[in-house]
TrEMBL record:
One Pfam family named in its UniProt record: Malic_M
Malic enzyme N-terminal domain segment(s): 16-149
GO terms of molecular function: acyltransferase activity; malate dehydrogenase (decarboxylating) (NADP+) activity; metal ion binding; NAD binding
Gene Ontology process terms (BP): malate metabolic process
EC number, as in UniProt: 1.1.1.40
UniProt protein name: Bifunctional malic enzyme oxidoreductase/phosphotransacetylase
Entry keyword Oxidoreductase: yes
UniProt source species: Natrinema versiforme JCM 10478
InterPro entries tied to this protein: Aminoacid_DH-like_N_sf, Malate_Decarboxylase, Malic_N_dom, Malic_N_dom_sf, Malic_NAD-bd, Malic_NAD-bd_bact_type, ME_PTA, NAD(P)-bd_dom_sf
Keywords recorded for this protein, A-Z: Coiled coil, Metal-binding, Multifunctional enzyme, Oxidoreductase
Keyword Coiled coil assigned: yes
Length: 751
């Protein structure tokens, strides 16, 4: 099937469309329903009647945007009317929810009169926290937005105007930087004089482009003062009329630094590109076909052509989704009365700055695993980059507060943590650990230091203040890779091949001499195997923690730390723990990586160590020893092990958290079963530490929960070691390394 057929099938599959309403409060009992509706709902109604701002506290208004259109200028389709525009407006709602967790009602108005549209939206003001105007043709869209900004007290944003302006503005900031050109001196030519072109030209002025350096062309050619005096252009185009001879787009582009295309495809030739100034900047944003093709523009010249389009299949896509969800997120969260120029500039500057930073692995994978690095082919962030939320929304909120548009003040550091939580419980939990790590950073040795991911992780770890990373490996190679990646930092490197590490070899020989390791073999291991080097480094207190395993099988990566660092004094066995996060629940699963067939003593040790780990995430542990039996319902050797382990822990004075077992998995996690059928259990709430009876079941269990249960997994985290050591999974991403570095630092702080 082709794209059109796939899209039709996508939209008509039951349930039809792309959005639905879901409840956010319990509705399971008669009391729940009496609170949600009559008679309980009267209480918040009366509170709001006394103070209308209480609507933000008692209703969804503060997270609800109205996407309003009359379908008169649907991108690529034109005036198709209100009803036919509904799939587009639903799609806009999907993007709001997906990228910024904002709920949307799409509102399609069968009306062409701007005055009547304004009145309709004014009547809906009590419903929404903000209004996104969409696909309304010019010049009516200007009138509608201007009047609504004056007449209603919630933010209004016409994305077709300002979205393109802001995102292309961010791209322009970086393109000018890469080209080594001053914004104030840029000569800018626009092809197109509709809503988005006029809004972009206005916005570029806010960024520093001089108005007298902007030349705008419509279908009749350059907008000149002579045409304006003759009444040939409307009042909005007239703002950009210049005292120039009449001419066409080709005349305007001659000698220009920047071309901004918001018109129709295929109207720019290679000769026109060749006529521009050195290292030209070309934003050909007509959709679906740009004013000039990407390769065509690049091939027109020998110097650097910085090219952007509106298409996702080429670098530098000017995509409005980089703006509107996050602009509204910040505006809603400070209860802004408007989205003003200061907020728009803050968005563009935040996006431009983000593009200059290292790109997460998940983003690189989403775009075919090709390297993504700041330069001519990467001047704006990718839409799927989760960091956009954390950079843009706080910038919008801050600009709103500073400019007087905000009704409420917020703490920006706390706000970033709230935004993390919107993207999932795992990010919220990791923020707890990373904040602890930042309070007292420790040195973390990174084995396999020549690995590009390790180098990028070291940069982020240092940049965020999580730890003081030491990369183990060839110093020249590490520094060369860092430079090639454009990472602006001086990595600390421990190079076994050039440093004087004889004492490390002596120590390794001392520890392993009776295990068959000669002194010369120990020297070779220290020089050639960064796992052994890092293990001795931590054992000798030259580093506080070690991360390893990125390119090794887990058992082979674990072996050197176990041989050198060993387990804690009062612990005989290490264990691998995963933290699984669901929407409203966090569960620790052990053991998933180390002990194949543990006895009751090992199970007890693993439980104790996992409970300690949970507390590092500010989670009070409640542990369940799992089996296929409930409290003796089956009695055999297998069920006795977790039962005995639970009894040992209950008798252990050092265990200060509830433990019980053996029990089935659903008994452990379902409150009704635990309290109803097994009210005698020592657990008064569902367990959050699940200890599996063997490695096989633990590994299967966590992977099923992750893949089918929709859980996010963090780990494996190694517990029970004498010094903080964590073994990565092969293929882990940079963010996984950074997260485990945070865990390792908190481990070291406990030491």
């Amino acid at each position: 099937m082709g794209l059109d057929e796939d899209a039709l099938e996508y939209h008509r599959t039951d349930p039809p469309g792309k959005i639905e309403i879901s409840t956010t409060k319990p509705t399971n009992t008669q009391r729940d329903l009496s609170l949600a509706y009559s008679p309980g709902v009267a209480a918040p109604c009366l509170e709001i009647d006394e103070d209308e701002t209480d609507a933000y506290s008692y209703t969804a208004k503060g997270n609800l945007v109205g996407v309003v259109s009359n379908g008169s200028a649907v991108l690529g389709l034109g005036d198709i009317g209100a009803q036919a525009s509904k799939p587009v407006m639903e799609g806009k709602g999907v993007l709001f929810k997906r990228f910024a967790d904002i709920d949307v009602f799409d509102v399609e108005l069968d009306e062409a009169d701007p005055d009547k549209i304004v009145e309709a939206i004014k009547m809906m003001e009590p419903t929404f926290g903000g209004v996104n105007l969409e696909d309304i043709k010019a010049p009516g869209c200007f009138t509608i937005e201007e009047r609504l900004r004056e007449e209603i007290d919630i933010p209004v944003f016409h994305d077709d105007q300002h979205g393109t302006a802001i995102i292309s503005g961010a791209a322009l900031l970086n393109a000018a930087d890469i080209a080594g050109k001053s914004l104030e001196e840029l000569e800018v030519v626009f092809s197109g004089a509709g809503a988005s072109a006029i809004a972009s030209a206005r916005f570029y002025e806010s960024l520093g482009i001089q108005k007298e350096n902007i030349t705008m062309c419509d279908s009749s050619g350059i907008i000149t003062e002579e045409r304006a005096d003759a009444g040939d252009v409307n009042e909005y185009k007239e703002q950009f009329a210049r005292d120039l001879p009449e001419g066409g787009l080709a005349d305007a582009m001659e000698g220009a630094d920047v071309f901004v295309g918001l018109s129709i495809g295929g109207i720019v030739s290679q000769d026109m590109v060749r006529s521009m100034a050195d290292d030209p900047i070309i934003f050909a944003m007509a959709n679906p076909d740009p004013e000039i093709g990407y390769e065509e523009a690049k091939d027109a010249r020998d110097d650097t052509v910085i090219m952007a389009t509106g298409r996702s299949d080429y670098p530098n896509q000017v995509n409005n989704v980089l703006g509107f969800p996050f602009i509204f997120r910040g505006a809603l969260d400070v209860r802004a009365t408007e989205i003003n120029e200061e907020m728009k500039v803050a968005c563009a500057e935040a996006l431009a700055e983000l593009a200059r930073q290292d790109v997460p692995d998940a983003v690189v994978k989403a775009y075919g695993d090709e390297p993504i690095q700041y330069g001519p082919n990467y001047i704006i962030p990718k839409p799927v980059d989760p960091r956009v939320l954390f950079r843009v929304a706080p910038s919008i909120a801050e600009a709103a507060m500073e400019s007087g548009a905000a009704r409420t003040e917020i703490d920006l550091e706390e706000y970033e943590e709230q935004l993390e939580a919107r993207l999932g419980k795992s990010r919220e939990m990791m923020r707890v650990v990373l904040n602890k790590a930042k309070s007292d950073p420790k040195t973390v040795a990174l084995a396999e230091g020549e690995n590009e991911k390790m180098i990028r992780a070291a940069y982020q770890i240092k940049e965020q203040g999580i730890a003081l990373p030491i990369l183990i490996g060839d110093e020249d190679e590490i520094k060369g890779t860092a430079a090639n990646l454009g990472l602006d930092f001086e990595p600390q490197v421990a190079d076994p091949s050039v440093g004087d590490y004889e004492e490390y070899a002596d120590r390794l020989h001392e520890l392993r001499a009776r295990k068959g390791i000669t002194r010369s073999e120990a020297g070779e291991l220290i020089e050639r195997d960064s796992n052994y080097f890092g293990s001795v480094m931590v054992e000798q207190d030259d580093a506080d923690a070690l991360l390893t395993g990125l390119s090794h099988h887990y058992p082979s990566a674990l072996r050197p730390p176990l041989q050198v660092v060993g387990t804690d004094d009062d612990v005989d066995y290490a264990a691998g723990v995963y933290m699984l996060t669901f929407k409203n629940r966090v569960i620790f699963i052990a053991d998933a990586t180390v002990n194949q067939d543990p006895d009751e003593e090992v199970l007890a040790e693993v439980t104790k160590q996992t409970g300690k780990l949970a507390r590092r995430f500010n989670i009070e542990p409640r542990a369940a020893l799992l089996s296929y039996s409930n409290f003796g319902s089956v009695d055999n050797e297998g069920t006795r092990k977790p039962r005995k382990a639970a009894a040992m822990l209950q008798d252990d004075a050092e265990v200060d958290f509830p433990v019980d077992g053996e029990m089935q998995a659903d008994t452990a996690v379902v409150e009704d079963i635990l309290e109803g059928t097994y009210g005698f259990s020592d657990l008064d709430e569902p367990a959050n530490v699940l200890v599996f009876p063997n490695l096989e079941s633990g590994n299967i269990g966590y992977k099923l929960l992750q893949r089918l249960g929709g859980a996010d997994a963090i780990g494996p985290m190694l517990v029970g070691m004498d010094k903080p050591v964590h073994v990565l999974q092969r293929g882990d991403e940079v963010k996984d390394i950074v997260n485990l570095a945070g865990v390792a630092v908190v481990d070291a702080q406990q030491e």
